[in-house]
Amino acid sequence: MSQRPSKLATSPTRPSANGGKLDWILLAAIAIACLLRVVYIDGRELWYDEVLSLLLSTTQRISYGDPAGVPIALANYSPLLQLPPLDSVSDILKGIKPLFQGLVGREPHPPLFFLCQYLWLLVTNNQAIALRSLNLLLSLGAIFGAYGMGKALFNQRGGLVFAALLGLNPFFWFHSLNVRMYCPTVLWVTLAGWAGVQLCYQRPGRRLGWYVLLTLAMAAGILTYYLSALAFVALGVVFLIQDRQRWWHYGLCGLGAVGLASPWIYWGVPQQLRNVDLQRFANNSSWLETMVQHIQGILEVLGIQLAVGDWATGLPTAFVLGVGVLVSLGLALMIGQLWHLLRHRSMSLLLVVLSLGCLPLLLMLGFDILSGQSTLAWGFGRTGMFILPGLLLLITAWIVHLPHRWQMFAIATLLAVYLGLNGADMALRQRQVFQQIAATATPAESTLIAMNSKAWGHVLRLVYYFPAETPVKLLATDPAMLPDALNDALATAEYDQVLWLEAMRPVWKAPKADEAEQIRQDIEARLGAGYTLANRQELVGTMQLDRFSLAVYEK
């Protein structure tokens, strides 16, 4: 039977008198991480994908239709962002069917997160605080899972370091307050890792609960985010390294997880593969260009996940790549030091750490190469969300094997950098774009919003932030069609106020620069014929999808 790594492997030097002080610092860091989430839960308005999550979770995705190119009352869309009347348990169960139908139509993700958010809406409401509170709680569970995993693999100090790093990591902090499936992905990966590590080192007779947790966490991970299966493959390698005598036990857990997910795999996945646009990930470049893109993807995902976090949405790609190079060099030095320290003392521990820390990233890279796609850094690193726990575990392993006099410095430096990035993110990067647009409309007057985008994330955020009782109509078309559609709308109805909302990124059918300028001139000429320009402002959020030019015209 496998033996737990020697304490010598995780405590190469005798603990100093500062050990207790360091533990208190780590506990304080974990407490601050939890507090920051509570304080900033409503610090920003919903971003593009979050309002899509709300539409899916209310089970009304199949009822949504793109604007038809004529003015429509904005309030007509409001019911789509709320649960339909559910008066009984039977109604609640029946609501699951349209939720699933909405998912297989266009969403490339499995259902568990949206199902949980649907059930959460039953006991809360659709306000941002309520929506995000579920992921906030799940993120606390992930931090606790990181503590358990680190303690089981190293010692209590290792658990505290891992939990503090995950709690204050800017990338995870952002996604903890984000109504998407990325936060629970980290939860299931850390819980499965905790259960797996415990099983590798646990005495007989105390294993059943951990087997159950491992099975459920892997099933939940697959049903939350398909690519999290790559993290579970890396965990399987750990089982073969550390506890191969019981390989069939872990095999049964894996089969059990697949069995729990099989109804959706059988019914939902084939429909998603038919309906979802996967060509956006296609890579049609030459061999050399493809390799460069894969290397760039690795550097970007490392720089984003371990350093800049959501700041990446507003930083030049070159800067993010530069950070990625520095992070890569740092990880290489850490791996080199771990190799030097552990190759003779505890090779199995070294292989476990490297498997969990490096293998998920390498598996995703291999998946991209074999499938001819480029997904590694897609979505500012969130596609590879399941990679993050392993990377932070690798850093934790390096820290706990430092001499005690250097542990304090390394931990304090990393946590200070993370805390500074999060604090600056909260203070300097605001996203209140659609609230500003809603504040511009005059409640007592009839208002037309003319927008050069039919993207549902833009449309639904207007719906979400405009009061339902405001007499506002929306004219949303593809950019090239907006001048003619606006001309027809103003010829058939009178409006006291027109808000011309120009999206810098319309998402679909974006015109070239010269075409956009001509469209802009045509709209200004039409509005100038019957209205006076009262105000013009540039609205900027935290990402390209939040950039708009708002011009207010009054009769």
Q: Which key phrases capture this entry?
A:
RgtA/B/C-like, 6-stranded mixed sheet, alpha/beta, cell membrane, Glycosyltransferase family 39 protein, disordered N terminus, transferase, 22 helices, LipidA_mod_glycosyltrf_83, 555 residues, globular
- Rg, rounded, reads 26 Å
State the low-pLDDT regions, or none.
1-17
- Which strands sit side by side, in order, in the main sheet? 1-3-2-4-6-5
Q: What percentage of the residues does DSSP assign to strands (E)? A: 5-15%
Q: Between the first and last Cα atoms, what is the distance in angstroms?
A: 83 Å
Rounded mean pLDDT is 91
Total number of helical segments? Answer: 22
| Biggest sheet features | 6 strands, mixed
Number of strands: 6
| Net shape | globular
> What's the helical proportion of residues?
55-70%
Report the order of strands and helices: HHHEHHHHHHHHHHHHHHHHEHEHEHEE
- Going by helix content, strand content and strand pairing, the class is alpha/beta
Q: List the quaternary state of the chains.
A: single chain
